[in-house]
Amino acid sequence: MYCQSCREEYGSEEAGTCKECYEEASETEEELHREIEHLKSLLSFLRLSPPPLSPPHTSSSASGLLLLHSLADSSASASSSSSSVPAHRAVLVSRSPVFKAMLDNEMEESRSGVIKIPDASTKVLRSFIDYLYMAETTLDEDIAPELLILAEKYQVNHLKVFCERYMTSKVNHENAIACYVFAHRHNAKQLLDASLSLIIENMATLRVREEYKELVERDPRLVVELYEAYLCRQANLASTKDSNAKV
C-alpha cells in the first residue's frame, strides 16, 4: 500500500498513512492544540474588566491614568517623572486583584492616582507594565527573577508563569543551587523541579561549591530536602538495576 501523505510504499495492507507520517501528524496536532490553548490564555489575560458602576470621584482616577512610582531607585526623588511609569486604571484592575483592591476602594492610591512600588527598579516596573498591556516583554537573566517577584506580589499569575518558564530554560550547573533556593522562596514548582533534578544528578560536584556551603549555614532545612530527594533517586536506581539483573 501507498501512504496517502508521502506516497511512499509501506507494508500494511490497510489504506491510510505510514507510521512516520502518522506520528508526524500527531505531533503537529498536539503542537497546534498547545498553541490554541496558549492563545486562549492570552485572550483571557488581555480582556478588560467591566467599568465600576460608580466611577471614582478623584480627578486622577477619573481620567483613567495613574502613575506607578518606583522607590527602588535611590537616586530618584518622590516627584521625579523618570522613576514613574504611567498606566491606565482599567488595565491595572483587570490584570491584578491587588491593584483592583487598591483602586476600587477609597485607599490612598485611588485618591492620589499614584501607586508606590518600593521593591522594583524603574526598568523592572516598565517591563511589568509592558506585560500588563501586551502579555509580552523582553526578559534576561537579571530582570526575570525581579519581575517574577513583582508578579507574585501583585498576583499577576500569567506573568509569573511567563518568567518561571524563562528561568527554567536557563537552569544550568552554575546557577542550579541559586535557582532551587529562589524557587522554594517563591513557590515556583517548574523551576524547583528543574533545578532539583540538576542538583541531585550532580550532587558530588555541587556540594563542594561555595554556594552549597553557604546554604548549609543559612538554611539547613533545604539541604535536608535535597538529600532526601538524592537518596530517593539512588534507591530507585538501585531497585531498577536489581530488577534488570533478575530478568
UniProtKB/TrEMBL annotation:
InterPro entries, sorted: BTB/POZ_dom, SKP1/BTB/POZ_sf
Domain of life: Eukaryota
Pathway in which this enzyme or protein is active: Protein modification; protein ubiquitination
Domain (BTB) ranges: 72-141
Pfam families: BTB
Name under which the protein is recorded: BTB domain-containing protein
Organism per entry: Rhynchospora breviuscula
Record lineage: Eukaryota, Viridiplantae, Streptophyta, Embryophyta, Tracheophyta
